[in-house]
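The records we work with from here on pair a chain with its fold. A complete example follows; check for yourself that the lines match position by position.
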Amino acid sequence: RLRLGLSRTDCQVKQWLHDTLPSLFIPHGGGPCFFMEWPSPDPWAPMRFFLSQLITSLPHRPTALLVVSAHWEESPVAITAHPTPPLMFDYYGFPSHTYELTWPAPGDPSLAATIRSALQKKAIECRLDETRGFDHGVFIPLKVALPDADIPTLALSLREDLDPEFHMNVGEALHFLRQEGVLIVGSGMSFHNLGTMRSEQECAESSEFDTWLTRVVESHPIERSEAFRHWQNAPHARLCHPREEHLAPIFVASGAAREENGRCLFTGQVLGAKVSAYQFG
């Protein structure tokens, strides 16, 4: 009987693990980089390939996507509630064809209301935005990951203060979504110093920061949260993130994992900087 009971428990745990999607932190590149011509070798090719495998590598296909974009900050936080979100071409100086890209994923106003309610129950102010569309932190990486745009997608803003504790709490409040088939995606960049990247010179400091970030993600969840609270103590933190809006989505992804572990999914060198992606749960 004991063995049978343990067997059932194991099966239940395995089923739970299969049904529960992870939360992710992904790099979304630079502007419309994945849809431009580049000299060979294409510096964005490894990241593009990683993103192209993102959905198929999951335990099962998501019922919806919730994307926390580095390019949207509000106070209080806001969530898209447009049934057919338009695209926001919020990048400048790129080839004309990049302003004609399409990615017609539907929204989900009902899910948006559920998320607002869940955040409010945790005393987190949140409003619905019924007019905003998808900024390039949402549609550029997802156009690679989900070219058919056939999964309902919502965007969630950061709060303007970018406070790590607050954003981990947001993620924790939305943990339940992972068990309901919703993929939570933090979309940013693990390194985001545009001046350094434009120089295309190798940035050794980015490697040191990346090593720290991977070690933190793969540490015990309590240690992970504590390190994120004090991320500015990381090696070369302010060189790698002069402002942390591109790092902050990882706080939400980490919080959505609660006590579950994290791991590195991808590491690549782009324009001289080391950039990584991570999975929690």
About this structure: DSSP finds ten helices and eight strands in the chain.
